[in-house]
Amino acid sequence: MAEYLEFKSKVVNLHDHRSFDLSEYLPSFEIDYTKLDKDMKRALKAGSTQVEAETVSEDDVVELDLQSDIPKYNRNSLMITVGKGLYNRDLENMLIGRNAGDDITAVIDESDVKVSIKKIKHYVIPEFSAEEMKSIRKDCIDRQIDNLLDEGEAADMASAMICRCVSENSEFHMDDEEVTAIMELADRKLENFDDYDDEFDKIMREITLNAYKTAIIGNHMAKKNGQLLTIDDYERSIENRLPYYEGMTAEEVKKEYPLYEYMQTAYGDVYIKYIDEYVAEEFKKVLNEEY
Q1: Is this structure's pTM higher than 0.85?
Q2: Which residues does 70 contact at the CB level (< 8 Å), separation at least 6?
């Protein structure tokens, strides 16, 4: 039977994270309409079907036989997508308007290339309703916003401030023994600093306490969702760390990364991930005009 990991400290009253005002953290955002047009075409094409066609149009997939002294252009049953420019843009443009069965000669790199058009596959895009088109457009814009949030600091800052606000305004039943153990971890980390004053010590303790409270909330959520960590999870995390602690045994690594620190990190990540997703969705609601 699995041995579950739980903090002795518990959440008594959880502050509503939705009460936090995100407006001052909103990043500026402008739609890249060139990218949006490409993404829309790609999304619509994903739902299309291929049918045989008589005449070549842009974006058609064409099967060609090529004969030339140039190895690149001496191919049989070559499949190219016309208009992408991935094979040879001039050759692709020459194909537009031609028919299946046509034989043409192209001049490439001052050499004749005999081109036989064997088959033409045309993409047929189904008709979408106005609501479906709006949904597809929204998804494409959302991806642009996701990239903005991944590359910027606004979402990270907002998430950090929400976690701090929640931890400071929630009510907890704190286990004294556990709090002492957590603070001892903070003291040990302070030993890595050559020189620090009382103010720095106070700040580090506040950060540690808030991180601990965040982990307690994550523990609460994990238990509610049936996703509690186990001692086996901790043992696996130690095994994964062993390559980075050359010459040390698992027991020695556990002293460097004790159970409470693992629980604080892992359960803290549970709540932070939840808040990150909330912030991303709230930002998208405001930044995406199509919501």
Answers
A1: no
A2: 108, 109, 111, 113
